[in-house]
Structure prediction request, 458 residues.
Amino acid sequence: MRTHPFTPKRGAALGGILLLISILAIGGLTAWNVVAGDKADRDAPRVIEVEMLDADGEIRFSVERIEARRGDVVRFVQRGDMPHNVQFVRNSAPAGVELGDAWMGPYLSKKDEVYEVEIDERFADGEYEFVCTPHVGFEMRGTLVVSGGIVEAAEPGTSRTAHERPEIVGEEGLQELQYTVADDGTKEFHLTAERIRWETKEGNLADAMAYNRMIPGPLIRVTEGDRVRITVENQMDEPHTTHWHGLFVPNNMDGVPGISQDPIEPGDAFTYEFVADPAGTRLYHSHFNAASQEAAGLYGMFVIEEQNPPASRQVDREEQWILGDGPLGYVINGKEFPLIRPIEMKLGERVKLRIANLGGMYHPMHMHGGFFTVVAKDGFAMDGPQKMNTLSVAPGETYDVILDPQFGGTWIWHCHVLSHVTGPRDADGNETAGGMIGVVIVDDGETRLADMSNHTHH
Prediction:
């Protein structure tokens, strides 16, 4: 994949006259290239151009169905005034496919900028849905159909860079980060940004970026008023910075490259230091090339505990969820259903769930079997706690909700954008469950709890 200003190139005659006519259809028609010559010419790699448009109230790709072969290049050209990108929908791809960095492309904001997707060995035959992340609500989407080509397909689940990255299987994110205490009482933490291969669901390893080899990154937990010192080491092959989302920090600790600090170059480190304030559910995430780095897994939760919480916000224990929708798929805590660890509780127990969205889409999270009570938004206590069963979480938002279920049983809690909870079709052509589905298991000592080994269709 390459991003660059668009510069047309002159064709050359090779053993005769090669006439290349790119036909771009409007709406749901197919794009293809017609090449004059013999079969060898027709099977040669092609460049298929798709424009990204937003004029006259129409926000769309100029071609909504692209037919390509391995060896071809699909060239997305920015022709609009709004930022656009290309994100392939992981749940729509053929089973076992791992596209690595191609799952999500960069944002194009300048006229005639180009993002090229090479249809290489990672693309098995089949259909791949794609969307423009900021305009998916306007139905800016399309389908790439791959069939045949000049490059042999790789084994499912592999990528060209797989051997370069540590493979993390059977691990969970948001493990609480340990700290040391300096002589002056400062709590000292260490984060390392690194490229890894992360297990999003059984049998699938995704190319990812992570703090401390987990997605989400470690949970940082302190108490309001604590002084913290966090050293971020960059072991990736590109620069990085970390932003402390929702915290009150000095400007030079804010983590914005070119504004408040220089980027952390590969092999270097930077130490952030500030007082933990204000209390509440906060976040941290990459702020360098964030559309790629954050989407690939460089994010985590930063919890600042209240010193004296009122009784209305006191609970027996807590859980944490971070929603994501980038190249890792539609995930909760870096995993797709059924690999998302259930929340298990006793009837009558009060459990706080800190929930955040660090994806690029809205996710209306609907809980079955009762309601929950929202007690804080973006870390700040609500004047009037609100009972709900569907909570729409926008990108960058956090909520604290208290679970107080009315009945025992096994209940699902899922995104109500149903394409975010649909897996690949099974051998019989039926849709399967996948993606952003959580499970709350409430034990009342009597109700039969579900056997989660039968989780294919819901």
About this structure: The longest strand covers residues 187-201. Residues 1-40, 152-163 have pLDDT under 50 and may be disordered.
